[in-house]
Fold this sequence. Notes:
alpha+beta, 5-stranded mixed sheet, 18% strand
Amino acid sequence: MAKYIFGRYTIDQACRELRCEQQSVTVQPRVFDLLLYLIEQRDRAVDKDELQDAVWGTIVTEDALTRAIMKARRAVGDNASEQQVIRTIHGHGYRFIAPVELDPDTTAAANPAPAFGKAGASQTSDKRWWVWAVAAGVAVLTLLIAFTSGSKLQANGSIGVAVLPIANTVDDPELSWAENGLMQLTARIIDDLPGLDTVSSRTILSTLPEDLLTAPEAVRIAAVSAEISQRLGTQAFVASTLSKQAGSYIIDYTLQHQGKDYAGRVQADQPPAAAEQLARTVARRILGTPVRNSTAIREITDNNWINELYARGMAKQLAGDTEGAKTLFKAAVDEDPDYFWPAYEYALSLRDTGGREEAITRLQQLEAQPGIDN
């Protein structure tokens, strides 16, 4: 397996590690896969559909791809305005453009010396078998590590989580957004944590029959788990119900992970805060460790009013109301422009409603912000 060197950075394929001057750079597994695929295909531009198929194994929203590209650029010291490593090919996709060298040790293995005649052909064949044997040994070792770690891992190294719509039993028209909005908020928080990946909410909604929305959690999980597990390799499912008791918002949930069901309850004084507690509880249960406070989490959970605007906007976005979503995202940005995800979604909604130039400017400014977790 190769080690690719560009500038101060090294991508070690065998160790699945990105390093900057020998210091490890933390990246989400999917971002690593994206970087690796682009660098392997560096002699050409890669279109978006191919990237989605290679990295996600399915077609995902352009939002998910754009976020991954943004995180990949930040990981290697690049940004959308400079594009010294990853270049956007407008109307097509992306290309890795930084000069790349192969580590000398891996170059010899990947490019055996040419040989002539029957004896040379035999030697070349022997070398190829040796390379394949080493590669196979690394693959087996990786699988053994994954098996003994106690978690069944996806191909990209993350545990896949499907967050189902949150059944809303609160008799309040002002909470009509909660089913899909709180689902999106919960999924976004979980997705920003190292070691976890969430399934697209659109995929969830296209799989879940409407008449199951208010069914018990276990019934909803059973309705989607087999199909989504088979299609996307997802290993954990979360179904929950929102209620209100004595002034507190309560989310009762069922988490299915590694063939077992776990039931629990979280509560808070506001629905977005309850969604945050749900996200943290689910992550802690799956990962088996406390969830640290990360910049990514703080960017979305410090202010309940902004979180509600964000969740309302995401619910409208899922319903196809891009203009309505844009209005809500803008209200969140006006409230506090330093909150990353509402500002990011506002830029995307601007792009989708004709404001491409302003959207590009805003996305470039967001990429330049310090302290956003990769």
